[in-house]
Amino acid sequence: MNILRTTAPRTPRATRTIGERFEGKALKAEILEIARAHQGRDLELRQAVVARMKSALAEGRAEAERLLMEEGCGRCCAQRLSALQDAIIQAAFEVATTLLYPMDNPSRSERMAVAAVGGYGRGMLAPGSDTDILFVLPYKQTAWGESVAEAMLYMLWDLGLKVGHATRSVDESLRQARADVTIRTSILEARFLVGDKALFEDLERRFDKEVVEGTAAEFVAAKMAEREERLRRAGQSRYLVEPNVKDGKGGLRDLHTLFWIAKYVYRVRATGQLVAKGVFTREEARLFTRCEDFLWSVRCHLHFLTGRAEERLSFDLQRDMAERLGYTEHPGQRDVERFMKHYFLVAKDVGDLTAILSAALEERHDKPVPGLKGMVQRLSGRSRTVALKESADFIVDHDRLNVADEEAFKRDPVNLIRLFHIADKRDLALHPDAMRLAARSLALIDADLRENEEANRLFLEVLASRNAPETVLRRMNEAGVLGRFVPEFGKVVAMMQFNMYHHYTVDEHLLRCIGILSEIERKSNPENGLANDLMATVKNRALLYVALLLHDIAKGRPEDHSVAGARIARRLCPRFGLSAVETETVAWLVEQHLVMSTVAQSRDLSDRKTIENFAAVVQNLERMKLLTIITTADIRAVGPGTWNGWKAQLLRTLYYETEPVLTGGFSEVDRGKRVAVAQAQFRHALADWSDDKVAAYAARHYPPYWLRVDLDTKLIHARFVDATEAAGKPLAVHAELDPARGITTLMVLAPDHPKLLSVIAGACASAGANIVDAHISTTTDGLALDTISIRRAFERDEDERRRADKVKDAIEKALAGEVRLPEVIARKLPKGRRTFSVEPEVTVNNSWSNRHTVVEVSGLDRPGLLFELTTTLSRLNLNIASAHVATFGERAVDVFYVTDLMGAKITGAARQSAIRRALVAVFEGASDDEEAPRRAARA
């Protein structure tokens, strides 16, 4: 059972215990007594005081962590730690002012107030957070004030605390607050700790009158701009699968920004007071508290778990976090996935609260009004409302679609779908009041509405709109309407997949797919390649939108999501108004949506059997067109850098190789002509080469090379080969940086031999480089031109370039036989617990190729894996004719086309079993047994 509370937490009895032990009198009196015992010996005094403070901090933090594990109250934990810190600072102040630097007859200038600011000012402190304090002075700094502040800071630093501090007079604080919004925010949250309280109250009173009054609009604009910049750096989506708890979208900083703005604009001290101001309902105020408690729980656990101020919920921490927070497995979903789903639902709630406050600010004219596609305008004058001819239940209010009254959805529940249909049709932004009412009216979406013909017609028109379907569906999802109207979609809302391949939650991925399909239809991005050309030729475009919305809708179930998704499609499509034939097409697309990607990336496209097998699956040209478009959108929506020109070229090659098989031998662009076109493009791009030189180079490559390699890579290859041969080198390595994809590409030119790929892989592993992709080409004159992609290690190009040079050097030395790779790799491979677990699978198949046995290996990726696999295949006396290496997050999928040393397929059942055992042993850590492959070879 999840130990996190789902209601606003009460203040536990243990909180008072912490207060009694560490606040004010008890600890302060004990520390002062220790200090007095060493009075007159300043060094000993400081050492004794710091020692007691250090033990108090350790005891208090241990108790706070114990209570957090026991109660699950994150806000309580943060308040306890803040109270503990208060007691330490108050004791430090008393020691400094009464024993180290006592002042018997202070002047008016020799006064000081110490205030907590920043997050600490809110009375909430995470275990690893900085302690931000402000020393407030009446006038300019005095020798006494400087000595007291310095003594306190040295004590705090000696405790190992990270202290952010500033010393300012009241006038200086106000002057800087007027000029700097960050300082203004810190003073807004300032909280008195110790010292001259009247001085602090003077600062508060003057700050309210001289800085805050009349500047609400300016402050709101500044904080919203600050938020946008922060989200731009952290990642705009709140559904990134490794979220930043503090600074990410939907994280604690968003809640803090909400409260800063509310406090500044509405002059309130607590969230509950926003109910009286009419900004939040009571339930929304409780939601704010629940979100805050959950996020503080996650943040405090994260700091305690890592022992530092870690704010990112990275994959390697998520499993431990799920365990600490008490999540358990359910069929089809692991504990970590349930934890992260809860996290993303809370992030969505934070987004809803942001929208509610934004609407209230717009009504006050303190914030610009957003449009449907992000444009803004400033509210001015009275509210302008325009009635709509489509429905009397809706109005246009300042160019935003709103309900005519609070009964709009009750009068006609179809209006819950019609709201979004009109917004899409008229390109109108949705008024926050309409969104808020829709979210409160979800109970009206029942079985009758889901089967309503008009509601389903409107929904399908929104889904397949030529305007902005992703944007409107996203709003529908944020209001909860989409998940309620299509309950199967509701099950994947905020669902994350615990792997490194998918960057977003399932619902976010599906919505991004719709957006990319719309982009393909507009032909606005040439990177979509063949899909752009095919889209205009499909007979029923709506089927693509429905299939993309449903293709991952069965994720999180125990069975294969493609098969289960097809079953869901057969149930939903008739409801949406699709015919039986259309329904079957959508179901087929959902069931087969991974096939084209798998074949293109892990099969030899020059092998006739590959094409025949794929043609048998797609059956006709129209289905292949649809599948090509869906595959493009699906890969592109996985995350940044997943789609690239190489994958686009592979899909294009597979499509054009299969087309003649499906059309009975006729092809719009036959294979020979496509090779000729590719070579003509190549010749045109190499204008500085003579025709003879181009022709001679072109003759060195087999036809498949021209069809599966993109033009940019061909040009790099040509210049690389030319430069290598001009320098008279027998082998060479060239590196290309690709920051956008987060990889570095290595091109290796060397005499071809059976163990070449193994040596290259081993050299990369020895240099600490992780291979994520590999493509092998062999020239007609016996050279290998291999392209290896390794994961980028450094953010700055100059650093990555130096690292690439080291990897190049390692490959060249390995190919020259100057190093013994097994020993080097054994020393460098990382050890320790792995974040992910992937069950290894090895398939040995003779039906996928007419000439080769195809060995497909999948399992947990790790540095050196490709070297171990290829070395094992070599020890098994297998010749690798081609290899197709791909990495999907933490899962490696490597496919090898092999023969025995006589060039024949591996047909014996015993030999095939031995191959499987030897390759599985690589994943299970048994690959060090060099006799195992030899025994398998003999078998």
TrEMBL record:
GO terms for biological process: regulation of nitrogen utilization. Uridylyltransferase (UTase) activity is inhibited by glutamine, while glutamine activates uridylyl-removing (UR) activity. Keywords: Hydrolase, Magnesium, Multifunctional enzyme, Nucleotidyltransferase, Repeat, Transferase. GO terms for molecular function: [protein-PII] uridylyltransferase activity; phosphoric diester hydrolase activity. PROSITE patterns: ACT, HD. Residues 745-827, 854-934 form the ACT domain. Its EC number is 2.7.7.59, 3.1.4.-. Residues 506-627 form the HD domain. Residues 1-387 are annotated as: Uridylyltransferase. It catalyses: [protein-PII]-uridylyl-L-tyrosine + H2O = [protein-PII]-L-tyrosine + UMP + H(+); [protein-PII]-L-tyrosine + UTP = [protein-PII]-uridylyl-L-tyrosine + diphosphate. Its cofactor is Mg(2+). SUPFAM superfamilies: ACT-like (SSF55021), Nucleotidyltransferase (SSF81301), Nucleotidyltransferase substrate binding subunit/domain (SSF81593), Poly A polymerase C-terminal region-like (SSF81891). Pfam families: ACT, GlnD_UR_UTase, HD. Modifies, by uridylylation and deuridylylation, the PII regulatory proteins (GlnB and homologs), in response to the nitrogen status of the cell that GlnD senses through the glutamine level. Under low glutamine levels, catalyzes the conversion of the PII proteins and UTP to PII-UMP and PPi, while under higher glutamine levels, GlnD hydrolyzes PII-UMP to PII and UMP (deuridylylation). Thus, controls uridylylation state and activity of the PII proteins, and plays an important role in the regulation of nitrogen metabolism. Belongs to the GlnD family. Has four distinct domains: an N-terminal nucleotidyltransferase (NT) domain responsible for UTase activity, a central HD domain that encodes UR activity, and two C-terminal ACT domains that seem to have a role in glutamine sensing. This is Bifunctional uridylyltransferase/uridylyl-removing enzyme. The gene is glnD.
